[in-house]
Amino acid sequence: MKLTLPYLLVAVNLALGSAAYAESTPSSYDGDSSDAATVASSVLPDYQNGHVYVGGRIGWAAYQDACGSSAEYCDTDTLGLGVYGGYQFTDWFALEGGMTSYGSPEARYATGGKVEADVYGGELAVKLSVPVTERMALFTRLGGAWQRIDKTVSRMPDSIESSEWNVLSSLGVSYRISQRWSLRGEYQFIDGIGDGEVDQADQHFTSVGLTYHFGQATPVIIDEAPVIEPEPQTVTTTQTVSLSAESLFGFDSSELTYNADLESLAEQLTQYSEDKVQIVGHTDSTGPEAYNQRLSERRAQAVADYLKRMGIAESRLTVMGQGESHPIASNDTVEGRAQNRRVEVVFDTTVEETQPVTTPSGAEE
């Protein structure tokens, strides 16, 4: 067991190195278009439970205590190749089996000649996983391994065969390349393969594998439409300012008195320098209709003259009187007649407004 830690570290480093390479070069993956699109995204949906996966692995097999002390030559490091498959019941539990050729370790002895062994076998194990990041997970396998050893000795006419079941344990790291593909690095240990006929050795196998997961839905790639800021829209609104005659004129007069509202109105009209202005005078129904008509015209003109003195261009102004013909209240009451005696200033204001960006129907904010 003294070689366990070095091989474990090699496996972890291989897996982490593969993961880092895949993270930094997603465009190098040569899969289908949906998987390639998923690689470019940092977000992957979870694997669907209840799916089958298959894979292949390549690695380095080493046999501890395989050679006797009298060996003149001993080569216990070999290349191993294998395939595996499993069923993923949940995101953390799977049942997995596989077949692996672990290569042919060999040795040479002064008395016995050359000794070579072909080692291969199958395994069945439970696989338990725990996520570390969205793409990376640690896993362990524990189960049984059937090992077949065909041993040949140069000075013996017949080969020696051995097959038996042993306990298998492993520790590894898996990394998701895409929704369907994943990499894995693993250290596997089988204690005491072989028997008294072929001798025994502890088997260490460090490997890198590529796995394909069946039954995975193609991830939906949503292209978010760029938010286009709307252009400011020109909006024209009509405003009507009603000025009480009592606040502008004396009784039965068209001579203006000081009024703060009129001054404020002049400032507003100066701000909107392109807008047309209509000035309309009104009276109540007291007195002759013709007289009221002329009085409304004079009062409207008085307001227009004031605005011109305040810098409002005459070309913008339209002046008219409507006498008692357009009341806004009843002329039967004092309060109603007071409301009807007025000068209305009507003008358009043009402003630029930006409408708020609306979220498309069904989208989340």
TrEMBL record:
It is found in: Cell outer membrane. It is a multi-pass membrane protein. Residues 1-22 form the signal peptide. Its main location: membrane. Residues 236-351 form the OmpA-like domain. InterPro entries: Bact_OuterMem_StrucFunc (IPR050330), OMP/PagP_B-barrel (IPR011250), OMP_bac (IPR006664), OmpA (IPR002368), OmpA-like (IPR006665), OMPA-like_CS (IPR006690), OmpA-like_sf (IPR036737), OmpA-like_TM_dom (IPR000498). CDD domains: OmpA_C-like. GO terms for molecular function: porin activity. It comes from the Bacteria. The keyword Transmembrane helix does not apply. GO terms for biological process: monoatomic ion transport. GO terms for cellular component: cell outer membrane; pore complex. Pfam families: OmpA (PF00691), OmpA_membrane (PF01389). This is OmpA family protein. It comes from Vibrio parahaemolyticus. The lineage of its organism: Bacteria, Pseudomonadati, Pseudomonadota, Gammaproteobacteria, Vibrionales.
